[in-house]
Amino acid sequence: MSDSTLYQGLTFLGFLALGYLVLKHTFKLLKGFRVHILSRWWKEDLGKYGGWAVITGATDGIGKSYAKELAKLGFNVVLISRTLEKLKKVAAEIEKQSGHKVKIIQADFTKGSEIYPKIEEGLKNLDIGILVNNVGMAHQGPTVFHASNDKEITNMMNCNVMSMLHMTRIVLPKMVERKKGLIINIASEAGTRPYPRVTLYCATKVFMDYFSRSLNIDYKSKGVTVQSVMPLMVSTNMTFNVKTNLLVKSPDDFAWEALNTVGLTNRTSGCLSHSIQSYVLDLFLTEYVMSSRIIAWIARNTLRILMSMQKTE
Ligand SMILES: NC(=O)c1ccc[n+]([C@@H]2O[C@H](COP(=O)([O-])OP(=O)(O)OC[C@H]3O[C@@H](n4cnc5c(N)ncnc54)[C@H](OP(=O)(O)O)[C@@H]3O)[C@@H](O)[C@H]2O)c1
Ligand SMILES: *[C@@H]1O[C@H](CO)[C@@H](O)[C@H](O)[C@H]1NC(C)=O
Ligand SMILES: *[C@@H]1O[C@H](CO)[C@@H](O)[C@H](O)[C@H]1NC(C)=O
């Protein structure tokens, strides 16, 4: 083979690889435009799922915003959360705003399987179209795994993982029977790559993401859609109510944008800002970078960084 044939061959391969990359990223961009921008006006009608929407962890933050938004869209809602006074207060607020029915069920999801018979009973005669598995807890601060005790481990696994499995088991049979249903699982950006100092939290979110994606494949043909939502920063109690800005969303804005993406994507950061951030992070946060000193420093100082971003009131 002459040098010039080799040269031409390599040039051809180079163009092929470049063409592939350009096409791939153009496609991503176009899809992002459809999912996050056009969807403001052109979106799936969630009304087709009908009836009731069930939201776990619904008295605060992202869950409360999903509940308000779904009631606004015409659903009766069931709020499941830990604190009874907050449940009553939020139920009254949503009933008044939307004019739709609100049912509350008190449950502590850090507990084991003994809490689910009561929830199942409470949901028995309802025609459930949508389930939002939102409840979740994070670590109290940056932590290394050997510093956690049995109780913390059990609590987080129950709250973040087992709750999703049990709730899904409870609502899925009837969705299959009626050949329609929507399950939204609130995972996290933390489940897209291994972040340091939040090991168990990360792992629970990976579990949620893979469970959602696998479930979606199996139940597609049965009319049930499963969406995995992986937010970055949303200003809630979990994130010390940091100030909202271009990067940090308010829970209301986040839930509105995320609900617009239903039917258009089955795995999303949830909103435009977070999708752009995730796209950029994907390019830079390789596993090599993740184990670097600078990331380790940021991880150790998460609390201090969040505190400095807090609203000053
Ligand atoms: N905020 C973010 O930046 C962010 C980013 C990515 C993913 N996420 C995920 O989004 C979900 C919601 O987070 P959030 O920031 O909205 O949290 P949040 O503001 O702390 O709200 C949590 C909600 O869940 C309820 N809850 C907490 N522990 C519970 C338990 N053991 N049993 C029953 N209910 C419980 C709370 O009720 P009480 O008020 O009664 O405690 C509250 O209604 C979580 O799964 C989280 O991992 C959040
Ligand atoms: C999402 O999943 C549903 C089935 O659950 C499928 O019909 C649809 O095509 C998927 N949407 C996208 C954008 O992948
Ligand atoms: C906010 O979170 C802290 C723990 O990080 C908890 O002690 C406090 O009760 C929470 N506040 C509300 C209003 O849920």
Automatic annotation (TrEMBL):
SUPFAM superfamilies linked: NAD(P)-binding Rossmann-fold domains
Q: Does the keyword Oxidoreductase apply?
A: yes
State the UniProt keywords alphabetically: Lipid biosynthesis, Lipid metabolism, Membrane, NADP, Oxidoreductase, Steroid biosynthesis, Transmembrane, Transmembrane helix
Annotated membrane topology: Multi-pass membrane protein
Classify the main location.
Answer: endoplasmic reticulum
Q: In which pathway does it act?
A: Steroid biosynthesis; estrogen biosynthesis
**Reaction catalysed by this enzyme:** 17beta-estradiol + NAD(+) = estrone + NADH + H(+); a very-long-chain (3R)-3-hydroxyacyl-CoA + NADP(+) = a very-long-chain 3-oxoacyl-CoA + NADPH + H(+); 17beta-estradiol + NADP(+) = estrone + NADPH + H(+)
Say yes or no: keyword ATP-binding present.
no
Q: What does the record give as EC number?
A: 1.1.1.330, 1.1.1.62
Q: Name one GO biological process term.
A: steroid biosynthetic process
What are the transmembrane regions? 6-23
Q: Tell me which domain of life the UniProt entry assigns to the organism this sequence originates from.
A: Eukaryota
Matching entries from InterPro entries are given as: NAD(P)-bd_dom_sf, SDR_fam, VLCFA-Steroid_DH
Tell me the enzyme class: oxidoreductase
Query: What are this entry's molecular-function GO terms?
Result: estradiol 17-beta-dehydrogenase [NAD(P)+] activity; very-long-chain 3-oxoacyl-CoA reductase activity
Q: Name one GO cellular component term.
A: endoplasmic reticulum membrane
Q: Which Gene3D superfamilies match?
A: NAD(P)-binding Rossmann-like Domain
Enumerate the subcellular locations listed in this protein's record, separating them with semicolons. Answer: Endoplasmic reticulum membrane
Which Pfam family is an annotated match for this chain, by its short name?
Answer: adh_short
Family recorded in the similarity comment = Belongs to the short-chain dehydrogenases/reductases (SDR) family.
- Main function: Catalyzes the second of the four reactions of the long-chain fatty acids elongation cycle. This endoplasmic reticulum-bound enzymatic process, allows the addition of two carbons to the chain of long- and very long-chain fatty acids/VLCFAs per cycle. This enzyme has a 3-ketoacyl-CoA reductase activity, reducing 3-ketoacyl-CoA to 3-hydroxyacyl-CoA, within each cycle of fatty acid elongation. Thereby, it may participate in the production of VLCFAs of different chain lengths that are involved in multiple biological processes as precursors of membrane lipids and lipid mediators.
Report what the protein is called: 3-ketoacyl-CoA reductase
